[in-house]
Write a structure and sequence with these properties.
Number of domains: 1
Number of strands: 8
Largest sheet: 5 strands, antiparallel
Number of helices: 3
Strand order of the largest sheet: 1-8-3-5-6
Radius of gyration: 16 Å
CATH topology: Jelly Rolls
CATH class: Mainly Beta
Distance between the termini: 12 Å
CATH superfamily: YjbQ-like
Low-confidence stretches: none
Helix content: 10-25%
Order of helices and strands: EEHEEHHEEEE
Mean pLDDT: 97
Shape: elongated
């Protein structure tokens, strides 16, 4: 049976940096365990945080990724848009570089992420607040 399942996932507030959220996503979609083939689309409803797939084993990768993003879009770059604080415009730039959505193939009841891949939320604000994701699963579900 082919289905569309859509859920809203409200993540807890996270500090500035790159955070693994794969477990949050999997908890929100227990139907993945029934999906023989499909596609999961994840969309973040914010313009000052972003999503990426990256290293899930060594946290130094996420630390270095955040450092690189801070070098690409530093707070002291004399931005025009400053009304929401010095970390806001750099956050928008980082969001545009990484993006607002991911599409991940599903097969054999699991996400087809690589061995060392995980879903990351990149929080680009010092105090971004809770972040809202829309999870859309389209796939063939097996009945049990």
């Amino acid at each position: 049976m082919t289905v569309w399942i859509q859920r809203q996932l409200l993540l807890p507030e996270m500090p500035r940096g790159c955070h693994l959220i794969t477990a949050h996503v999997l908890r929100e979609l227990p139907e993945l365990s029934l999906c023989s083939v499909g596609l999961l689309h994840i969309f973040i409803q914010h313009t000052s945080a972003s999503l990426t797939i990256n290293e899930n084993a060594d946290p130094d990768v996420r630390t270095d990724l955040n450092q690189a993003l801070n070098q690409l879009a530093p707070e002291n770059a004399h931005w025009t848009h400053t009304c929401e604080g010095p970390d806001d415009m750099p956050a928008h730039v980082k969001h545009s570089l990484l993006g607002a959505s991911l599409s991940i193939p599903v097969a054999d009841h699991r996400l087809l992420l690589g061995t060392w891949q995980g879903i990351c939320l990149c929080e680009h604000r010092n105090r971004g607040g809770r972040r809202n994701l829309i999870l859309t699963l389209h796939g063939d579900l097996e009945s049990r």
